[in-house]
Amino acid sequence: MKKCALIVDDEPAIVTGLRLRLEAVGWRTLTANDGLNCLRLATRHRPDLVVLDVRMPDQDGLQTLAEIRNCPETADIPVVMISGSAEDRQEALHAGANAFLTKPHRTHDFLQVISDLADTRAHRPGAVRTVTAAVPKT
Amino acid sequence: MLTATAEESRAGSRIAPLEPGQRPRPGPQRTSQGTARVSDDQLLDFVDAFVHDTNGSLFVAAEFTELLAEGAQGNLNPEQQRLLQIIHDRTYTVHDILESLHWAVKLRAGGDHFMPRPSSVQEVLELTIPRLLRRARSRIREFRTNVRDTPPTMRCDPNVASLILVNLFTHVSYLLNNSHTLTLQVEPLPGRSHNACRFIVTSGTPPFVRTEACTGFNAYFDLAATMADETNCFTLDPDVEEGELAGVAIPTDETDNAFLKPGE
Q1: Does the predicted interface ipTM exceed a cut of 0.95?
Q2: How far is CA B121 from each of CA A28, A34, B136, rounded to the nearest angstrom?
Q3: Are B102 and B135 in contact (CB under 8 A)?
Q4: Each residue of B117-147: pLDDT tens digit?
């Protein structure tokens, strides 16, 4: 059975990019454009992974992550936080993200993080890796 | 023909108008000459939002070109593949430039943190060389490294060290008239109160007086205020010889000065 990822970003083009990338490597995807929809879908579908943008209007990714961790149904879902600013790394990991990636990131790094987390259904904040330097594939 | 939805074409921006009841930020101040001026903190806020938003668009450009290249394999001729690869690589070049801008403004505002950890000259070079070549490839004919007798481990923030080196050497490359062969030489720096490595760029023929590069770099980052030797983190190397273009010294030992604050 395909693994399921919930992608959350307020920018539709970024959601599209992440969705196509994950589907290309065999994942099923759900998408949300804000924190409230993220919580609703996470509770209902219990995805294997959440890819969560840090900076979103209304309820940002950090608040959303806190609610994911506080909810018994979703507390153990691995969460990868992404942001266009490396400044958000510390806060994201401190809030309980399992990994942090900057935009733009290398596809290889993204897939490696996803692969590391795919079978890790446990709340292990910051336990996997962080990637902040982006270097194109050669 | 594929068309993007209006939503997909919209670039998100966090530089949003103020909500009703939200306290406005102090606006630009007027100087005694009547010109407008913002504080370093205001500039940092703006640049942080600008970098964040632009990186989002760069992510879209990089990801979509990669997905297109993968999906069209066999249907693109070599020239089309090369053009897609160039677009893809250029997104990361812009990303590097943005990171440098962000870092320079953070440094200026006193908001940059070093995160020293056990690292190595090799790790610093692995971060530095691809960034440097992306930034200055057209001005460098050949790039060599020469690493001699450096300690196997050094304690530093490799990302910040890399940004320093890339910006210094990119700045140096702007002063070259034509494409040159550059060598990045790394060696222990003896005779200091702390162990340090020297990172020096040399050229076969000295195309300019080396102080030009250092002076320019100093002015660019206001390094005189932020990177005096007492920070014990790294400094422009004052012992660069004629024929060497510019150099940076990075200590390899433990330092408790992990936080830079200009003017203190």
Answers
A1: no
A2: 42, 43, 21
A3: no
A4: 778 888 888 888 888 877 777 667 777 788 8
DSSP states along B143-158: EEEEE-S--S-EEE-H
| Strand order, beta sheet including B180-189 | B140-147, B180-189, B196-203, B244-251, B235-236
Q: Which residue of B has its CA nearest to A101?
A: B59
**Owner of token pair 């969460």:** A79
B 65-124 near A (Cβ less than 8 A): 66-67, 70, 88-89, 91-92, 95, 99, 102
The alpha carbon of residue B207 is apart from the nearest alpha carbon of chain A, in Å, by: 31
Cβ separation A17–B64 shorter than 8 A: yes
pLDDT of residue B225: 39
CB pair distance less than 8 Å for A135 and B55: no
Enumerate the H helices of chain A as residue ranges: 12-24, 35-45, 61-70, 89-94, 107-118
pLDDT of residue B224: 38
| Beta bridge pairs of residue B198 | B187, B249
Buried b (16+ CB within 10 A) or exposed e, A33-68: bbbebbbebbeeeebbbbbbbbbbeebbbbebbebb
Whether B116 shows a pLDDT value over 80: the answer reads: no
Decide if pLDDT at B101 tops 80: yes
Report which DSSP code applies to B31: P
